[in-house]
Design goal:
Two copies of one chain form a homodimer. Chain A has helices at about 5-15, 20-25, 35-50, 55-60, 80-90, 105-120, 135-140, 165-180, 195-210, 225-235, 250-260, 295-310, and strands at about 65-70, 95-100, 125, 145-150, 160-165, 185-190, 215-220, 245, 270-275, 290-295, 320-325, 325-330. Chain A is of the alpha/beta class. At the A-B interface, helix 4, helix 5, strand 2 and helix 6 of A face helix 4, helix 5, strand 2 and helix 6 of B. The first copy, chain A, binds a DNA duplex through helix 2 and helix 4.
DNA sequence: GTGAAAGCGCTAACAT
DNA sequence: ATGTTAGCGCTTTCAC
């Protein structure tokens, strides 16, 4: 792309050996070199506009200072904050993040991860919640560093960072129960997603515990359309009455909004709705959405931290970090009439 | 990260020279080698689980197959679609995108671009709308490939991809004029942004052309808060009456929503509001927002296409691609009462 | 404290 | 059609 200035160029001008320039420019090794020489070399490097070639360095040191981040879809608004969290931890430490979107497709994911490995990423942050556990075990035996985020899976041999899904669902149901609701729907995410399973499972447990009637409706994706379609289908079948919906995430809750509206049902007058994630703009929906806040930025930070920590202490146990969530009460939930 | 299988390993097992393996595995050069040998080598490579080392290849070929993408902030919902558009063009062609967030800070941007260059990116896609034109000229003379997207600047020596800002503002004003509005506010984005300038400029021109009263309010950022703050300040000063707001983007329009509400003004009964971008969820706001659709995904695709095309025909003129926009009429605009 | 030399994994010119 | 060789830009032993 450009006639770059190399270490050898600097060395030539400075009248020293490339090795000396390398040592001088690296803060780690500059104490091996005469202070005066360091100063001189630094000066010349600056004058020439020398910039290190990270690629060449990586080839030699076997570290690319690059982390692969695998997410389902960047346009799902929970991921940008997560990615920025990752970035905020990595950048000051000299790492860059290479982001890929799997679109929830396991085959695509495998292809993308392979391309990340070919690019010699030092580790992987995986935020795709579906299957592929075999693949992960394989990676682990091959010595690939990774951290899971926003997904939970008992068999996975890697550290995991999640929001406290169970506590979130519990808080949601308790809030609705306090408002007098007894007949519940859970609009559950796709069943191949680990978060879906936990949320649905907790929903069932909590309904039982509190003596409430809970019914689970499955959706095919964590999207507005999937939520609307599933809800439409349910409402078209003249279901037994219900007054509360606990959605698997905010997108599904929004789909429920749409469906309720087209069926002449008002939220929250007829039906209370709770989302999950507190993604951007939930406060601007009609009505402003009661939802469970999940600290996605912090999840990203934590995932990055756990990954880099693996580089130091080789054999760390696969820790599991659960970040606290909190119920954000807005206007989509109301007293049962 | 792992005991990788190298080209030399494959060569040794196959009983041939590394060069031959390289040629056999590269579709471009495999015809230089005996079909039978290619088959054998391919087979062995597969068995050994060989994966090419993109970093080493890049060092040798002086192409990293990596593109740097500089955006202000991934959590601004217009950028994920743009990034995915870029990705959709790059990935099938073997390129990866390295995304960095400048947060609208010129100094940060410079640091980030430098780090991208150190990583030997083959080119840059720059979506930050503010200054730095000197820097860009400098890059250009140094032979750095780049494309500007979502920013317009007469002096910049690079191809540019934008939405048709002027047409968007015109359509917005014509729509409002047809509804009988005569007193307008333009909530303009920060003045160091090129899109802000064009939108504000067109606003002035169009008001004049149609004989309308237009007033510009400047904001400090393209954010909800900045929109709300600017609007609050304006409304607190008991301004001369107005019935239409043309916002610089959807975030500012949303800020205006908030401000109007706290000042007891109803949208669209008292004031019509138009946004810009048609970002995700504008249809779910209260009221659903009339806005100008900008094809961000396509802008990303086009930017990537223009960048790669530079790699082929060296001296292409700095083309300027303007993508069509369209007014999306929803419920935040109504007849003047 | 600094130089010399090897080599990370790959490709490409030059041989044969 | 394939082997040989050099070298991309850097770090890091090993000398001195």
């Amino acid at each position: 792309m450009r006639n770059r200035v190399t270490l050898a160029d600097v060395a030539k001008i400075a009248g020293v050996n490339p090795g000396t320039v390398s040592r001088s420019l690296n803060p780690q090794t500059e104490n091996q070199v005469n202070k005066e020489t360091v100063r001189k070399i630094r000066k010349i490097a600056k004058e020439l506009g020398y910039t290190p070639n990270t690629v060449a360095r990586g080839l030699r040191t076997r570290k690319s200072l690059t982390i692969g981040v695998v997410i389902p879809d960047l346009t799902n608004p929970i991921f940008p904050p997560l990615v920025r969290g990752v970035d905020s931890y990595l950048l000051p430490r000299g790492y860059s993040a290479l982001i890929v979107n799997s679109d929830g497709n396991v085959d695509t994911e495998l292809v993308l991860i392979n391309s990340l490995m070919e690019r010699q990423v030092d580790g992987l942050i995986i935020a795709t919640g579906h299957g592929g556990d075999e693949m992960l075990k394989d990676f682990h035996t091959r010595g690939v560093y990774a951290v899971m985020v926003n997904r939970e899976s008992p068999g996975v041999p890697y550290p995991t960072v999640t929001g406290d899904d169970g506590a979130g669902i519990s808080a949601a149901i308790e809030h609705l129960a306090a408002l007098g609701h007894t007949e519940y729907i859970h609009l559950a995410g796709p069943s191949d997603s680990s978060t879906s399973k936990i949320r649905a499972h907790t929903f069932t447990i909590e309904c039982k515990r509190l003596g409430l009637n809970g019914k689970i409706i499955k959706t095919t994706a964590y999207s507005i359309e999937a939520g609307q379609t599933a809800m439409d289908k349910f409402l078209d079948h003249k279901p037994s009455p219900f007054t509360a919906i606990v959605a698997g995430n905010d997108l599904l809750a929004l789909g429920a909004y749409h469906s309720l509206r087209t069926h002449g049902l008002n939220c929250p007058d007829d039906v209370s709705v709770i989302g999950f994630n507190n993604m951007p703009f939930t406060n601007d929906f009609q009505p402003p959405m009661t939802t469970v806040n999940v600290p996605h930025f912090d999840m990203g930070v934590e995932a990055a931290r756990l990954l880099l920590s693996q580089f130091e202490d080789e054999e760390s146990a696969p820790v599991k970090v659960t970040l606290p969530v909190s119920l954000i009460i807005r206007e989509s939930t109301a007293l049962k009439k």
